[in-house]
Write a structure and sequence with these properties.
alpha+beta, six-stranded antiparallel beta sheet, single chain, 3 helices
């Protein structure tokens, strides 16, 4: 069931189904994508007035494997230190004890991942492919020269995201 949640009674309610502990970020019921570990929902940053991605990991799925939970927290802590135009920005992280979820807010990529984008747009020039490749390599160079060095481990078109209106790629 979708419920309306409002932080300011003078504003019309947004159809958020969940708010972060500060009330800044509201999650919609719209699923943007999912993987083996997390689901990603469309969300809204009420302070900045921008759409964001609400990433949610159900920790109960890993209660028998503390190593997986420790690795998740470690990766999120590391993501918080990364600042590069071709790396998806992490804005906020928290654990919801009641729902037993790890939640983190990242920038949203309006056109989804590169795999789906290429399925939708079949005729792309070599110039565009080279532009995307160069951006991917710039992001990888940043990761590899970061202290400590970061290795992506799962770089593929499903894990590279794009804002098609400006041709910017992120991973």
């Amino acid at each position: 069931m979708v419920q309306s949640v409002s932080v300011d009674p003078d504003r019309e309610s947004e159809p958020f189904i969940e708010l972060d502990p500060t009330g800044r970020y509201g999650r919609y019921d719209e699923l943007l994508g999912y993987g083996a570990v997390k689901k990603v929902y469309r969300a809204f940053d009420q302070e900045e007035g921008i759409e964001v991605a609400w990433n949610q990991v159900k920790l109960r799925n890993f209660m028998d494997d503390q190593q997986v939970i420790d690795r998740l927290y470690s990766e999120v802590r590391l993501l918080k230190t990364l600042k590069h135009k071709n790396i998806i920005a992490l804005y906020s992280v928290w654990r919801d004890e009641n729902r037993n979820t790890l939640n983190f807010i990242t920038e949203v990529c309006t056109s989804g991942n590169l795999r789906e984008y290429r399925k939708k747009h079949k005729h792309v020039s070599m110039k565009a492919v080279k532009k995307w490749s160069k951006q991917i390599l710039k992001g990888l160079n940043y990761l590899h020269t970061h202290e400590p060095c970061v290795i992506h481990r799962d770089l593929n078109c499903s894990n590279v995201f794009i804002n098609g209106n400006i041709g910017q790629v992120y991973h």
